[in-house]
Specification:
heterodimer; A: 115 residues; six-stranded mixed beta sheet; B: mainly beta; four-stranded antiparallel beta sheet
Chain lengths: 115, 114
């Protein structure tokens, strides 16, 4: 079974609009972390935002926020006021603390920002 | 504080040759992870190492692939007798020993087998 599911292979969004990238996860652990990474066309992996399973508040980092719904096991990334430079591949990932500690990635969503 | 350093950035090998990919983790990080990314796909976990120990190699192919993280020096991912299907981007990530934090990625090594 997939641990991380990103159901949107690609998205097109108008510049300056907000965009939500979906991510659901599967774990039986109580202690875990959720991450979002951005991969532009240049190929590097850029860390965006982190949410711990015990964090009561949704994580925010500038224009990025993570809509964490623990009961639904979802961790959607919200980008406000999108910019052309946001066009990239976005990966949701999970790390189960105390189990094997490795980070598991979803298949990604390719986001295209339209001028 | 330098980030995770991977070298080389690009590596071309002929079929049957060996590929050695190096990863120097961030200062103070003792956990190293290797991932493989095929074109237009996500990152697939390969192996997780701590200093001198392989913790989880469940994602490593059983043959031709090996990894190490010695007490001194970088982590090495070694691919023997490369085949065309080994062509991919290989990413290394590191994280500290303690604390619930993200892993920091290197810029990757793009291996092309010709």
């Amino acid at each position: 079974a997939q641990k991380i599911t990103q159901t949107q292979p690609g998205m097109f969004v108008q510049e300056k609009e907000a965009v939500t990238l979906d991510c659901t996860y599967d774990t039986s652990d109580q202690s875990y972390g959720l991450f979002w990474y951005k991969q532009p066309s240049s190929g590097e992996m850029i860390f965006l935002i982190y949410q711990g399973s015990y964090d009561e508040q949704n994580a925010t980092e500038g224009r990025y926020s993570l809509n964490f719904q623990k009961a639904r096991k979802s961790a959607n990334l919200v980008i406000s006021a999108s910019q052309l430079g946001d066009s990239a591949m976005y990966f949701c990932a999970m790390r189960e603390w105390g189990r094997d500690d490795k980070i598991i990635f979803g298949k990604g969503t390719r986001l295209h920002i339209l001028p | 504080n330098a980030g995770v350093m991977q070298n080389p950035r690009h590596l071309v090998r002929r079929r049957g040759q060996e590929a050695r990919l190096r990863c120097s983790p961030m200062k103070g990080h003792s956990h190293v992870y290797w991932y493989r990314q095929l074109p237009e796909e996500g990152l697939k976990f390969m192996v997780y190492l701590q200093k001198e120990n392989i913790i989880d190699e469940s994602g490593m192919p059983k043959e031709r692939f090996s990894a190490e993280f010695p007490k001194e020096g970088p982590s090495i991912l070694r691919i023997q007798q490369v085949v065309r299907g080994d062509s991919a981007a290989y990413f290394c990530a590191s994280s500290p020993e303690t604390g619930n934090t993200e892993a920091f990625f290197g810029q990757g090594t793009r291996l092309t087998v010709v």
